[in-house]
Design goal:
Nucleotidyltransferase, domain 5, binds fe (ii) ion, 20% strand, 2 domains, alpha/beta
Length: 324
């Protein structure tokens, strides 16, 4: 069976093509800026501009024709309405044109499922991206959220901090590089509240008390050490509580070299396994949508045209995981 997946929740428009367990194509095009953050309308315009080209490239890479596709899967939430609408429109158009079924996929669940395709069996997922920061695990028919951010996603926090020191979008990769040159740890607020985390106070503290007073390299280093320790503390507690022996990383922030390193150290210490998919499957990507669409379709899930509206606020734990 061949499933074509479409991703468009935020900055990335992607087309992924999966045949059984094989990724035939994973073509993604992301909106970026030289300075300033992401503007949703501009990101949606980016998706409109690149969607034909991305589809054509993906079909060429997969070496198939559009008519060989059996199922159309698409990200229907959570995400930015402007952006989600472009992917859903492409999905509906292809479904009507090809007379093939549609499957609406939850983006956060797809980050976990692609990790299972990469070898994890029953992990705790630390999903660390721009808009989303959640610690997720399977329990009793659903993917449950054991901890999450109370305000920004960690990636949005890093981007916000990046704007304060003059970086463009996305700022995370530059912060990662600057942090590697940092030597001195600056004490920052450490904001874990129960199983949740919060970044707003740290950002205000950085803006008012830190930026301009210390070298940017030392600030980036201290920011990473602090917020990644927060994320891994919550992840480790979820692992202990659920008695799970695997940690899976997902989301664009998981491409960060120091977060990967700290996750490996934590898992080694507690005798657990860490799964870190290739960067192309960590960031927002359409292969994960195609793969989750395939799992859902094989379990009997089909999204009717009438029910195919986007769901910008859909929660991870809204989904009945009928395919497990
Ligand atoms: Fe994501």
């Amino acid at each position: 069976m061949i499933v074509l997946g479409i991703e468009s929740t935020a900055h990335t428009f992607g087309i992924g093509i999966i045949k059984d367990k094989q990724v035939l194509a994973n073509v993604n095009d992301s909106y970026t800026t030289e300075s300033g953050g992401m503007i949703p309308v501009q990101s949606a315009e980016h998706h409109v501009e690149c969607c034909d080209r991305v589809l054509k490239t993906a079909l060429e890479k997969a070496n198939i024709s559009l008519h060989e596709v059996d199922v159309i899967a698409y990200s229907r939430g959570p995400g930015m309405g402007h952006c989600l609408r472009i992917g859903a429109t492409v999905a509906r158009s292809l479904s009507i044109l090809l007379k093939k079924p549609l499957v609406g996929v939850n983006h956060c669940v797809a980050h976990l499922e692609i990790g299972r395709l990469c070898g994890a069996k029953d992990p705790i997922l630390l999903y660390a991206s721009g808009a989303n920061t959640q610690v997720i695990a399977y329990d009793g028919g659903k993917y449950r959220v054991f901890g999450e951010t109370l305000d920004n996603g960690v990636g949005n926090f890093l981007d916000g901090f990046g704007r304060i020191i003059g970086l463009g979008f996305p700022a995370g990769p530059v912060i990662d590089k600057l942090a590697q040159k940092g030597k001195n740890y600056i004490k920052l607020p450490y904001s874990v509240k129960g199983m949740d985390v919060s970044f707003g106070g740290i950002q205000t503290f950085l803006k008012n008390k830190v930026v301009g007073k210390f070298p940017n390299e030392d600030i980036c280093y201290s920011v990473q050490e602090t917020v990644f320790a927060m994320l891994l503390e919550v992840s480790e507690r979820a692992m202990a509580h659920c008695e799970k022996k695997e940690l899976l990383l997902g989301g664009g922030v998981a491409c960060n070299t120091r977060l990967k390193e700290m996750a490996k150290i934590m898992c080694e210490d507690r005798g657990a396994k860490v799964f870190i998919p290739e960067n192309q499957f960590l960031v927002d990507n359409a292969a994960m949508i195609a793969w989750t669409g395939l799992l859902m379709y094989e379990a009997g899930v089909i999204t009717s045209m009438k029910d195919s509206k986007i769901r910008p606020y859909e929660r991870t734990d809204d989904i009945n995981v009928v395919w497990r």
